[in-house]
Amino acid sequence: MSAPPSSSPLVLLLVTLVTLISYPFFAAAASPSLPPPRGMKILVLLDDIAVKSSHSLYFSSLSSRGYDLDFKLSDDPSASLRHYSHYLYDGLVLFCPSTERFGGSIDQAAILDFVDSGHDLIIAADVNASDLIKEIATECGVDFDEDPSAMVVDHLSHAVSEYEGDHTLIVANNFIQADIILGNKKIEAPVLFQGIGHSINPANSLVFKVLSASPAAYSANPNAKLSSPPSLSGSTISLVSVMQARNNARVLISGSLSMFSNRFFRSSVQQYGATIRHQKAGNEQFLTEISKWIFHERGHLQAVNVRHNKAGEVDEPAMYRINDDLEYSVEIYEWSGTSWEPYVANDVQVQFYMMSPYVLKTLSADKKGVFSTNFKVPDVYGVFQFKVEYQKLGYTGLSLSKQIPVRPFRHNEYERFIPTAYPYYGAAFSMMAGFFLFTFVHLYNK
Question: Which domain of life is it from (predicted)?
Answer without folding.
Answer: Eukaryota
